[in-house]
């Protein structure tokens, strides 16, 4: 049994609506439904009466609701207490970042931030899009560092989770320079991943017949696809920041037009420690400098 199943059930018991709760929990409706079913299988009873609209709880669901709500409260309370005791330094900021940004963007960007704030301790979570969103929404992290593209809207409340555009990147199709007469197969991300959805959009925009998928990387790490492309396994859509050296050295070649990406920094507005506010103000200043340079170019 997983904590997120209980959180899903508590949300559904409150909203009575699968689609609304799925949006609230930042997952697709089908994934949300599977997690509710997984909880029901684990308990061995039906919690949701799916024969009515709006959705209602079964007698077992009504009985279990109080237990689920109390368990979620106790676990989150214990986590908050443990984190507070384990991290007494108020000068620490916690950032959840997509794998690629954790490697290619965060180190240099955070150095610019510290140039304005002074030395800071940092805690970095490199993970996939959904895990990073969840980490910030649930309060364990102060900031979310993510790519953004209009084809994959980020459904965060702009009041509770404001953002600055702190950088720019692009998604580019690359392959090994090894000559081949065979059609290039596609090296793919998991379909429900952020870069997977943007890459699907980019591939469609590029025109021509869709490429056959030769390999799917289920954990959504662009770095793994880069090494598959270097070994000549096919074509991959990768952030340019991740393959800049390989393109310059000729170890990879780019195909067609790149897809522009924003780099966004989201803040949990409920976190108001001095260090968090200082990073947010510094990020605004750095973002403004970047925008001025772009306009002048």
Features:
single chain, 297 residues, alpha/beta, Arc Repressor Mutant, subunit A, D-Maltodextrin-Binding Protein, domain 2, 3 domains, eight-stranded mixed beta sheet, 11 helices, 10 strands, 49% helix
Radius of gyration: 22 Å
Name the average pLDDT: 86
**Terminal Cα separation, in Å?**
54 Å
- Annotated CATH topology of the largest domain: D-Maltodextrin-Binding Protein, domain 2
* Name given to the CATH homologous superfamily of the largest domain: Periplasmic binding protein-like II
Strand order of the largest sheet: 4-3-5-10-6-9-7-8
**What is the top-level CATH class of the largest domain?**
Alpha Beta
Proportion of β residues?
Answer: 15-25%
Number of domains: 3
Helix content: 40-55%
Quick one: overall form? globular
N-to-C order of helices and strands? HHHEEHEHHEHEEEHEHEHEH
Low-confidence stretches: none
Q: Got a strand count?
A: 10
CATH architecture heading of the largest domain = 3-Layer(aba) Sandwich
Secondary-structure content class? alpha/beta
Organism: Methylobacterium hispanicum
Pfam families: HTH_1 (PF00126), LysR_substrate (PF03466)
Protein name: HTH-type transcriptional regulator YjiE
Domain HTH lysR-type: 1-58
Structure, explained:
The chain is an alpha/beta fold and 297 residues long. It has three domains: 3-85, Orthogonal Bundle (Arc Repressor Mutant, subunit A); 91-168 and 263-296, Periplasmic binding protein-like II (D-Maltodextrin-Binding Protein, domain 2, 3-Layer(aba) Sandwich); 169-261, D-Maltodextrin-Binding Protein, domain 2. The protein contains eleven helices and ten strands. It has an eight-stranded mixed β-sheet with strand order 4-3-5-10-6-9-7-8, sandwiched between helices. Strands 1-2 form a two-stranded antiparallel sheet. The chain is globular.
């Amino acid at each position: 049994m997983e904590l997120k199943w209980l959180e899903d059930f508590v949300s559904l018991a409150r909203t009575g609506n699968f689609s609304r709760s799925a949006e609230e929990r930042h997952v697709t409706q089908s994934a949300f439904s599977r997690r509710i079913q997984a909880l029901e299988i684990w308990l061995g009873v039906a919690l949701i009466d799916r024969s009515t609209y709006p959705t209602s709880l079964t007698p077992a669901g009504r009985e279990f609701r109080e237990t689920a709500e109390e368990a979620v409260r106790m676990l989150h309370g214990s986590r908050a207490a443990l984190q507070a005791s384990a991290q007494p330094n108020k000068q620490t900021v916690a950032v959840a970042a997509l794998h690629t940004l954790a490697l290619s963007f965060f180190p240099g960007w955070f150095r610019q931030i510290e140039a304005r704030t002074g030395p800071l301790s940092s805690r970095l979570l490199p993970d996939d899009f959904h895990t990073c969103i969840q980490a910030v929404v649930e309060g364990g992290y102060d900031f979310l560092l993510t790519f953004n593209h209009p084809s994959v809207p980020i459904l965060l409340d702009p009041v509770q989770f404001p953002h600055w555009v702190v950088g720019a990147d692009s998604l580019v199709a690359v392959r090994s320079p090894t000559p081949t007469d065979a059609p290039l197969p596609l090296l793919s991300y998991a379909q429900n991943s952020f870069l997977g959805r943007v890459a699907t959009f980019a591939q469609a925009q590029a025109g021509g017949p869709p490429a056959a998928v030769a390999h799917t990387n289920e954990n959504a790490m662009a770095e793994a696809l880069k090494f598959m492309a270097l070994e000549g396994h096919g074509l991959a859509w990768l952030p340019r920041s991740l393959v800049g050296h390989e393109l310059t050295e000729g170890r990879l070649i780019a195909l067609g037009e790149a897809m522009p990406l924003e780099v966004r920094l989201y803040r949990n507005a409920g976190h108001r420690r001095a260090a968090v506010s200082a990073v947010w103000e510094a990020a605004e200043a750095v973002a403004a400098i970047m925008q001025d340079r772009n306009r002048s170019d």
